[in-house]
Amino acid sequence: MSEDYGRPIHYTSVQRGTPVYDSEGVAVGEVRRVEDNYAEHILDGFEILDLEGTLRFVDAPEVARTFERAVTLSITAAELPEKANPVNRGIGGIGGGGNAGSGGLFGRIFGR
After folding, report:
1. Does residue 97 surpass a pLDDT of 70?
2. Rounded to 5 degrees, what angle do the CA atoms 34, 40, 41 make?
3. pTM
4. Taking Cα atoms as reference points, which of 36, 35, 20, 37 lies closest to residue 80?
5. Comparing C-alpha atoms, which of 49, 37, 24, 61 is closest to residue 100?
6. Domain limits of the chain?
């Protein structure tokens, strides 16, 4: 790690705006929202804003580690577009739950 990411932390402690890095340490975006499966107490994934301005959902298996000042992925920047789908808010924000970063129930049912 060339950058000081800080101490490892639980995924629920990751803050909006935390930088996201690929498996090679290249910056690929920033965290917009943590998706948690509350019923099972496991990470579902992160919504990130990539460097091109696209909001993407990164599924939990692609998340390597979470730190105080970084989230690292297990995929490369080149793999991001194919492994992290753009987030679709739907018509008029349906499924957004009033939160700009939320996929909501409808988002889960209809593919985020």
Report:
1. no
2. 50
3. 0.77
4. 20
5. 49
6. 11-109
